[in-house]
Amino acid sequence: MEKEKITVSLIKADVGGFPGHSTVRAELKDKAKERMEKAKREGLLVSYHVLNAGDDLQLLMSHRKGVDSPDIHGLAWETFEAATEVAKELKLHGAGQDLLVDAFSGNIRGMGPGIAEMEFTERGSEPLIAFMMDKTEPGAFNYPIYKIFADPFNTAGLVIDPVMHDGFVFEVWDIKEKKEVFLRCPEELYDLLALIGAKSKYVIKRVYPKETSPLPKDEPVAVISTEKLYFTAGKYVGKDDPVALVRAQSGLPAVGEVLEPFSLPYLVSGWMRGSHNGPIIPVPFRYSQCTRFDGPPRVIAAGFQISNGKLVGTADMFDDPAFDLARRKAQEIADYVRAHGPFEPHRLPVEEMEYTTLPDVLKKLEGRFEKVE
Ligand code: F6R
Ligand code: MG
Ligand code: MG
User: What pTM does this model have?
Assistant: First the structure.
């Protein structure tokens, strides 16, 4: 049965880079649009947008099928498969790399692609920002989501908008142990920070309104993809570049409050070979390609108003001189950290590197280590 609420699903996968891991070829996006258009014609989708964040193909869809819909997940899977065929013909790098299983079995979660989706009742005005990052991990959203929904120095509304004054509820996942906990802020702010500061283990999955908010309590106001390819496949198969959806305005953080955290090019893990710390750069769509040292990590922000389920857009939110200073700072930080070469903390600690030769080196030197008295 069709539902009245709207669902927005952002599903992404790297199905082939051009060249190397830098960006997505137009042919892949065209193929994806073809599939999406057909699904819209057939009534499965209300609307869609096809974008790329670096080498990741991004399918942003609105529909009335709810979250975890086999129809929508199946559509995304088939679209990635079709794009993979094109990538193979063009011999693009890592063609099909994020499609970890041979056959789709009802739900795309755990099969390779990253996914952020939420179902909610459309308000009179429903602004939505879709963030897409490349060359980093889901924990890279901890800092901005915390700032947006819990930091009064970022979000003035937490102090001066009576509807937001009571704060928000954070759903935090332990992505290694596959556990979740709900934390209420501002009351449990320090507990939240104790967890999410460890961003490779604890990630914010969703944010909900509090009981005092006029918004439905069970409808998320933000959602982040938390797929970790490393844990899905049991070995390194590519980066788990994350995406997020954030609703804004009228009792939620304003669009400008949602974008504000990105004025700081904060440090994230990923970058070259998924094994380095570096600054995240907010960029316009036209710079959504990774170059220097396969990066630096990037984020794009696509802005929409939702009208009767339709994603009216796209506004390229970081295409603005207001973010020039963040971009300049990011380049200076990139230069500075890069100078450390293979040394931590530029290079990640051994446990967090996506791949490492250390075991081989240790094996080779096995017989040569001598006891130190
Ligand atoms: C991929 C990534 C890249 C690659 C690197 C090596 O998301 O982060 O930095 O890890 O380019 O790639 P391969 O092993 O494909 O040559
Ligand atoms: Mg790639
Ligand atoms: Mg990528």
Answer: 0.96
